[in-house]
Amino acid sequence: MKTSAFCFAGDLADEGVDAVLDNIQGRAGLGGVTMAAAYHASRDLFPHARERHLRYQPGGQIFFQPEAAVWRGLALQPRPSALVRDGDPLAELIASAGPRGLDVQAWTVFLHVDWTEDGDPRFAEQTCFGDPCLTELCPANPDVRAYALALARDIARRGVSSVLAESLHHHGLEHGAHHERYFVELGSAARLLLGLCFCSHCLDGARRRGADPDELRRRACGEVERALAGSEAQSTAELSHEQAAALLGGQLGALLEARCETVTALAGELAAATREHGARFELLDASGAIKGYADGRPAGDPAPAIAWRQGVDVAACARAGAGIGAIAYAADPARVALDLAAYRALAPAAPLVAALRPGPPDCDSAANLAAKLRSASDADVDRVDIYHYGLAPLSALDRVREALELACI
Questions:
Q1: Which of 199, 79, 224 has its CA nearest to residue 150?
Q2: Coil, strand, or helix at residue 26?
Q3: What is the rounded CA–CA span in Å between residue 103 and residue 164?
Q4: Per-residue model confidence (pLDDT) at position 372
Q5: How far, in Å, are 33, 285, 286, 353, 375 from residue 2 at the CA level?
Q6: Residue 107, strand partner residues
Q7: pLDDT at res. 3
Q8: CA 113/CA 285 separation, integer angstroms
Q9: Which residues make Cβ contacts (< 8 Å) with residue 179, sequence separation at least 6?
Q10: pLDDT tens string 337-355
């Protein structure tokens, strides 16, 4: 089983590429680096940074020099980071990692872009009321699909082992922007509906599957408006796929089906494109983060059971040629084993990669992490990515090495 550490281009710029690689390879005992080649907006605390412990990350930027020919004529263009003005962080990492025998994966956030100040609503997901969600591009939009394909191609041609695709799917209501506020109890149905895209491209997909787009939108608006009025209690019980499909007079199922087919087709296109350049394509499913990111205590069914909410059909994406990425954020090793086994059952022949956190809120000892590593091995996981080099204290690297030794990985 291969191993790697997530990192940012900012980590490399702050500490120096060689210092970071020394720590990842020598101190943690890991075999690769998974660098963010494109990322969303964030404000993060970096415990062992040399210069700034608190850093801001502008939204939707890339961390390599784009190839002009790949992007020529596209409606959506890449936005290079300030770190690219004087160099190419991804190229520098690949050049330094190669002689050390380290693999480089390109962790790529595709459609969560946070272009709120100058985002174009034509490309954004839209609520049933027509409100544009400027932080998120819609995967059903042809111009967005062309952007995603160009991004994957431009990265894959650089010599990375794989493109780990985060946010190549639809997005829910929560975690769409910073300082979100919802001072009304929406209930599970209204929360789901407000997180679905009703743009013309998504509605066309629903129409092809027998739904009436106008009726679909009208019913969705009515359902959400009743919740916003706050005049009646809203059920907060988690909806199953079958229950959700039965909403809006039974028509919502057509939209949910269209969303999954949209993401599956896009994942297949990107997998074929990266394969042309010798790189593997891995679709990172957000379900494990939705369930366990905040407290490391996911509950209920295994993580992939809710993937449909983001328009992800894990089994179909694997059949389309994508490797599958599982976010295994959980304190309990048994929960990690449950989730990874579920992903493996859905994608028995596909490469499976898993993200683990070596510190709070998921991990308090090397023994805990070792148990999770053994579960990954039992699920025939191809690679474990440790989250995250810059966000964890350096002592976490010692825990990783000890866990790898305990697990005999």
A1: 79
A2: helix
A3: 13
A4: 98
A5: 11, 19, 21, 9, 14
A6: 36, 164
A7: 98
A8: 17
A9: none
A10: 999 999 999 999 999 999 9
Instruction: Show the tokens assigned to 238.
Output: 């988690």
Q: Quick one: tokens of 68?
A: 């002009």
| Positions in the chain short of pLDDT 50 | none
**What are 186's two structure tokens?**
């929406």
Closest Cα to residue 360, out of 334, 326, 406, 399?
A: 399
Three-state DSSP class for residue 256: helix
Helix orientation angle between 333-346 and 366-378, rounded to the nearest 10 degrees = 20
Residue 318 tokens read as 């694997």
Q: Give the model's pLDDT for residue 329.
A: 98
3-state helix, strand, coil in the chain (%, to 5): 45, 15, 40
- Per the listing, tokens 């350096």 go with 394
Task: Provide the strand spans (E) within 20-169.
Answer: 32-39, 42-45, 54-57, 61-62, 103-109, 124-126, 132-137, 162-166
pTM of this prediction exceeds 0.90: yes
